[in-house]
Design goal:
single chain; 234 residues; mainly beta; Lipocalin; 2 domains; nine-stranded antiparallel β-sheet; eight-stranded antiparallel barrel
Length: 234
């Protein structure tokens, strides 16, 4: 009964709230599993996972816009329902007056509002530097690797918008202290043994691009260059 009353109270607090409240940041719904949503600019990603069981369940995302009390999602990737890729999905949306929760299909609670956010945004990988110091550039097309970050949460996703293929994802929490970027993995579609581990990298922002250097989850050296999606133009 207590749980039932609490849920009713949360729903009533949402009634009449405007969806124009900014969704920027990360949000979470917790029941038996976690659902984490990250909104950055016009982009979003949702991940479903069981943290205790180290089980990745699914992910989807793309672009979104708010119109009144409706959120319109244009799906770019979906690990479970590839038939939805390229479609628009409309959902009613109620945001609480204090901006700390919102109701769509489920009740989400705000984790952060995009701060501190040195790296907050949606990024696409556009280059790599090899062990000889040579930079190799690439232009993202249908095949994309995106990393989306709020102020404290991150997720990367590899996918193809034309073939509707999903290649993998991982995410969790992160910090940026001085020039060190540290990820703590909360879900990983390719290797659940990595869940709970932390990885540290050097990072710097050069001419608006994110330079990311360190060792991958497999212990292999990496030096990646990421560019904001707004600058790439897709």
């Amino acid at each position: 009964m207590t749980k039932y009353v609490a849920i009713l109270f949360c729903f009533s607090a949402l009634t009449g709230a405007s969806a124009q409240t900014s969704l920027t940041g990360s949000w979470e719904h917790r029941m038996e599993t976690f659902q984490t949503r990250i909104y950055a600019g016009n982009y979003f990603a949702e991940s479903d996972y069981n943290l205790d069981g180290k089980l990745f369940i699914g992910t989807y995302g793309g672009t979104y816009e708010l119109k009144g009390d409706t959120i319109i999602e244009t799906i770019e990737f979906d690990s479970r329902r590839p038939e939805l890729i390229g479609t628009q999905q409309k959902k009613s949306l109620k945001v609480s007056k204090d901006g700390k929760s919102y109701q769509s299909n489920f009740l989400f609670t705000r984790v952060d509002n995009g701060t501190p956010g040195q790296l907050a945004g949606a990024w696409l990988i556009t280059g790599r530097v090899n062990d000889k110091g040579e930079t190799r550039r690439s232009t993202p097309g249908a095949r994309r690797t995106m990393k989306i970050l709020s102020g404290t949460r991150f997720q990367w996703i590899a996918y193809n918008v034309d073939t509707k293929e999903f290649f993998g994802t991982g995410g969790g929490s992160y910090t940026t202290v001085d020039r060190k970027y540290t990820e703590t993995i909360m879900f990983f579609s390719r290797d659940n043994s990595r869940v709970g581990t932390s990885l540290g990298f050097e990072f710097s922002l050069k001419e608006g691009e994110w330079h990311h250097k360190g060792l991958s989850s497999k212990g292999e050296p990496i030096y990646e260059i990421w560019t904001k999606r707004e600058k790439v133009g897709i």
